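Support reply, case 0932

Customer input (verbatim):
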Amino acid sequence: MKQMEQKTNENKMGVMPVNRLLLSMAIPLMLSMLVQALYNVVDSIFVSRISEDALTAVSMAFPIQNLMIAVGSGIGVGMNALLSRSLGEKNQKQANESAVQSIFLMAIAYLIFLVIGLAGAGVFMRSQTKIPSIAEPGTQYVRICCCLSFGIFGQLIMERMLQSTGKTIYTMITQGTGAIINIIMDPILIFGLFGMPRMGVAGAALATVFGQTVAACMGIFFNLKINKEISLRFAGFRPKLSIIKQVLAVGIPSMIMASIGSVMTYGMNKILIAFSSTATAVFGIYFKVQSFVFMPVFGLNNGMVPIIAYNYGARKKDRMMKTIKLSALYAVILMWIGLLVFQLAPTWILKLFDASENMLSIGIPALKIISLSFMFAGFGIVCSSVFQSLGNGVYSMTVSICRQLVVLLPVAFALSRLGKVQIVWWAFPISESVSVVLSVIFLIRIYKKIIKPLSLETETGPDL
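Our regenerated output:
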């Protein structure tokens, strides 16, 4: 009787059949990630209707936006790993502290970007261009996004808390609602519909932060009213360095990883522009479309991380290994579906962006070659998330740096010296194959040092 009562009271991440648990947590996140990917494309379409300079201004603001998301996501990942592990260890006090201290870190992050928005937006844009029709709206966009970034930071931390306790259906609701509101408000604020003033690029920024703020408010509501596994109490709050260090130990490598993509994109653009602006445009199209393949895998990973962290804290090795194996299987299947689409329909993909004959001649082989990296990417992404969930974010950071900076850019540059842009695209599958080898090496090390020594406790619930 006592055993049955224990099982009933335990968080579902410790007792629910692994396959059903993983799917129940991952599918809502995968769907919300797809909505986010769709939003990114639709948002660019609306802005492009203003003018090409407007689209350029928003594109130039991307590094700051990406940095905000990188910082917020990094803190969220660090909290996620510690909170889930604490719940698995039945350490409720540490679980609560990890949430509260992470909110404190998010508040600090917001203050930093508030200063950047007020004092650095103009400097940032003028460092990239002196053209007033690009620099001025771009400055407006950066300033609004930074000064009102409490929305994105609040959304990220609240959604991570829901993920940590297995309530990913509510994360899907917050993310989906925020993205849909953003899409609806974009044309209203940009073009001045329904009596609203025509705000142009500033309207696009306001639509973005409005959607984020609504999502953050919903996340706060869900955590306070529904998420009973966490108790948020700020009475007598003081920064606790021991908790902050644990959160940042995983979070900082994650922040760096999320920021590396911007550096890689900049470097690839510099390499490709030497061939033609069309080659650079093809690379941009690839990045937009590939998000529809990678986003579901990232959603799967976000559902996987708290399961692994919880069961690591609960010393349930078998459940951890089943979660890793199933996640790798699903990730590989998703990436291979994406590979087939890129291989079979590159012309259709490019024509979505009104591709010219010249773009088709460059883009068709580009999409076919780059997408070969999908064969390896799914497994590598899962490995990276396993490292993070077990508190070894440095491994994830190392793999990411090697893939995008140490291998990809030098190989792409070397291949570009051969004088044919078609050869440059091979840098992607080459770098991905190197990174998956490195991921396997780190995974074996993690298994030997962390997973294998776990005591083999008897599972109290049904499995697959």
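We compared this against your earlier run and they match. Two observations from our side: Residues 49-239 form one domain. The chain is about 80% helix and 0% strand. Please reopen the case if you see a mismatch on your end.
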